[in-house]
Amino acid sequence: MNSDNLTFSSSARTQPTDRSAPPIPPGVEYHRVLAGEKRRIGRGILAIALLVAGLFASQLVLAVAAASIDAQMGNTNPTFGGTDYTPLFLAGNLVAIALLTPWSMLIQRWLYGVRGPSLHSVVSRFRFDLFGRAILYVGPLWLFLSLIGPAVMPLQEVDWSTATLLTVFAVGLLLTPLQAAGEEYGFRGLVFRVAGSWVRGPRTALALGAVVSGLMFTGVHLATDPWFILWTFTLSVSLAVITWRTGGIEVAVVIHALHNTLAALVATVLHADPTPALDRSSGTGSAALLVLCAGVLALMAVVWWRTRESGPALAPSESHPGRG
């Protein structure tokens, strides 16, 4: 089998057109796009604060709107843990997080003068060929991992109506991938780049960017359980490294979207009460999350190995036209 079909790195066919080319330096790695002569730490802190504020503000607004509409429709089904967790509330929460994608692009353009599409990749576009290959390779593995949790952890079943079951299934299938993508553009995109611009060396920038984005990603999940904290931080750092090696957000989006979507769909199929999944307080996690940690670390290792000869993807330049 031709190894070129298995590689996670980009090839010459992924170069952008002149019309879509962003004002970014040629030959730079993904996390160094915002780096310049000045470190602009204050601006970076403002960017991260705006990102997090936008996330919680959109969640609050859409949660209030969903609750109001649910109240008017009489949707207070205790199946969803009271008056809050309904299909409409679920949709509002997913959309609120999905809005991080355009919000991250707007922040980057406003504070750094770099066009939003550069958050896709070093070629400033979403590489659907890489995205498709990642789904084919990661999909079977993550489907298997998604079945381990329900197999080893007890689930509380609830009596779902057919209409509710179909609605939640459709909402989860359509909106959860967008929610996962929003988190990737926000944390492995904007935050990773912002923190990566605070130091001079690219490897130091990689470490700082991965750690800062990991801490912020873990923090916004409001988890106090050590197993959940370990899982979210491991996921974030692993996806940051994958983003660096592939030069874009596509593979990270695939992994995150598969994890969230498959977990939601499996729970729906099993008629599981979704409320416990939202509880990340101390004592709610378990060592079973180590399996997911091992899975994402293995994927990170595979991506690194597949790009061992090419190295991390770079923004196109005249001297390296095919490394974007």
Q: Which features would summarize this protein structure in a list?
A:
single chain, 324 residues, Rce1/LyrA-like_dom, hydrolase, 0% strand, hydrolase activity, 9 helices, 60% helix, membrane, disordered N terminus, transmembrane helix, mainly alpha
Q: Would you mind describing this structure in some detail?
A:
Helices cover 60% and strands 0% of the residues. The chain contains nine helices and no strands. It is globular and about 60 Å long. The longest helix has 35 residues, at 162-196. Residues 1-22 and 78-83 have low confidence and may be disordered. It has one domain. By secondary structure, it is mainly α. The protein starts with 40 loop residues before the first helix and ends in an 18-residue tail after the last helix.
What helical percentage do the residues reach?
Answer: 55-70%
Main sheet summary: none
Strand content: under 5%
Q: Ranges with pLDDT <50 over ≥5 residues?
A: 1-22, 78-83
Structural class: mainly alpha
SSE pattern, N- to C-terminal:
HHHHHHHHH
**What radius of gyration results from the CA coordinates?**
20 Å
Number of domains: 1
Shape: globular
Question: Secondary structure elements and their pairing?
Answer:
Blueprint: H1 41-73, H2 87-98, H3 100-112, H4 128-152, H5 162-196, H6 202-220, H7 226-246, H8 250-269, H9 289-306
Helix pairs in contact: 1-2, 1-3, 1-5, 2-5, 3-5, 4-8, 4-9, 5-6, 5-7, 5-8, 6-7, 7-8, 7-9
Task: Describe what is shown at a glance.
The chain is mainly alpha-helical and 324 residues long.
